[in-house]
Amino acid sequence: MKIPFNRPFVTGKETGYIKEVIESGETGGDGAYTKKCNEFFRKKYGFQNVFLTTSCTDALEMAAILIDIKEGDEVIIPSYTFVSTANAFILRGAKIVFADSCINHPNLDVTGISRLITKRTKAIVPVHYAGVSCQMEEILELASEHGLYVIEDAAQAIDSYYYGKPLGSLGNLAAFSFHESKNVVCGEGGMLVVNDEKFLERAEIIREKGTNRSKFFRGEIDKYGWVDLGSSFLLSDVLAAYLFAQCEQMEKNQAKRVLLWNHYFRLLKNLEDEGKVGLPVLPGFSTNNAHIFYIVCRNLTERQELIKLLKRNNISTAFHYLALHKSRYFGDKHDSRVLENADRYTDCLLRLPLYYDLELSSVERVCDIIKDFYSR
Ligand SMILES: *Cc1c(COP(=O)(O)O)cnc(C)c1O
Fold first, then answer.
1. How far does residue 63's CA lie from ligand 1's centre (Å)?
2. What are the E-state strand segments in 234-311?
3. Does any ligand 1 atom lie closer than 6 A to the CB of residue 127?
4. Measured between alpha carbons, how far is residue 134 from residues 109, 160, 194, 262, 334 in Å?
5. 3-state helix, strand, coil in the chain (%, to 5)
6. pLDDT given for residue 81 in this prediction
7. pTM over 0.85
8. Which atom of ligand 1 sits closest to the CA of residue 127?
9. What is the C-alpha separation between 163 and 185, in angstroms, rounded?
10. Angstrom distance (rounded) from CA 358 to CA 257
11. CA 190 to ligand 1: nearest atom
12. Phi and psi (nearest 5°) for 350?
């Protein structure tokens, strides 16, 4: 039997809700299901100002416009992340300064950040890799000391907490993803959370192509027009209906993911104790939303051989980011700093299948093959 790497969670309610939206004739953005999603996130996480977007990439682009990124502004982001974290700011003319990951975690290493701050630095963008929180207290302290914005790339971080506070509630702005590869999905979709109220009015305008259309629909003005920069960042209510079905059953989905994650961890713990693989580290300040289960192999060759062996056994796995500072696009723009941890995760990190429909017995099969590989 094949074990795919991912299968998006399906509750069974999605198609009914989507049909309802189509039959209502109101399929554009900010409709009835968008409001239900907003209310869900407000109640569950206390997010007061939520903007559903077409993707997390777009939510990050909105953030870059909101903090007025201009040519020459510097933004600090980890090199071990998805391209969107960087693109959003580069599109507005920023210079990206890449930070290394921690030695024991792909998240950015805060001890190295203060050296990267200059007079031109405008923002720090922590990425909560695998839904595990970055060291937010240290990051927020540095930001307030130097007058910088903090934008959380919380693409993977739904339903995870830092010292009891939901991820996405800590920075000035935060971006989430509902892409099919994430825990909560709607095909393609995202969300901008605005925690700093000064961005509220503009966020609404930027998402509506630079117009004050939202104000018009609330009856606050009698015609709407072009008032600022903007783009088409608004999520269709068809997809919001899909998303709401997922939100309603999030706890069930999350509980299963955590169960599977813990099963992997228990079964592979011996290999870690023997020094053969690294397992995910969960710092005491963070919860685990079980977005990714990964192992860290000792080197690239070993990882590639393990991928091949698993593939021969019909199990799909995936490595993850190719550190952005060495990418074809950015390689010649990076200063010469060596980012050894980002490089190591590029070569050695391997993600194992993890999704709602996965069976505990499948986790056991995957782990048996890995253990077999390391006992040769
Ligand atoms: C998935 C992901 C994104 C992009 O999300 P989209 O919704 O596909 O645009 C951005 N950053 C990180 C860290 C991600 O994992």
1. 14
2. 293-296
3. yes
4. 8, 11, 19, 21, 23
5. 45, 15, 40
6. 98
7. yes
8. 13
9. 26
10. 9
11. 7
12. -135, 125
Six-digit token string for 334: 């990076």
CB 179 less than 6 A from any atom of ligand 1 = yes
Which residue's C-alpha comes closest to atom 2 of ligand 1? 155
Looking at residue 376, what is its pLDDT? 85
Lookup: tokens for 47: 């997010």
C-alpha 31/C-alpha 28 separation (Å) is 7
Q: Which residue's alpha carbon is nearest to atom 8 within ligand 1?
A: 179
* Residue 141 CA, ligand 1 centroid: distance in Å: 26
Cβ 78 under 6 angstroms from ligand 1: no
In Å, how far from its chain's centre is CA 33?
A: 23
What distances in angstroms separate CA 119 from CA 73, 86, 122, one per listed residue? 9, 20, 8
Spatial CA neighbour of 101 closest among 254, 374, 323, 320: 323
Look-up: residue for tokens 């800590």? 170
For residues 57-89, b (16+ Cβ closer than 10 Å) or e, as one string?
Answer: bbbbbbbbbbbebeeebbbbbbbbbbebbbbbb
CA distance 59 to 203: 10
pLDDT the model gives residue 221: 93
Q: Look at residue 211 and give its three-state secondary structure.
A: strand
Q: What distance in angstroms lies between residue 213's CA and the mean position of ligand 1's atoms? A: 28
Residue with tokens 């907490």: 161
Q: How far is the CA of 175 from the centre of ligand 1 (A)?
A: 9
Q: Residues with Cβ < 8 Å from 312, sequence gap 6 or more?
A: none
Residue numbers of the chain with a pLDDT score lower than 70: none
Distance 46 CA to ligand 1 centre (A): 22
Residue 296 φ then ψ, to 5°: -115, 115
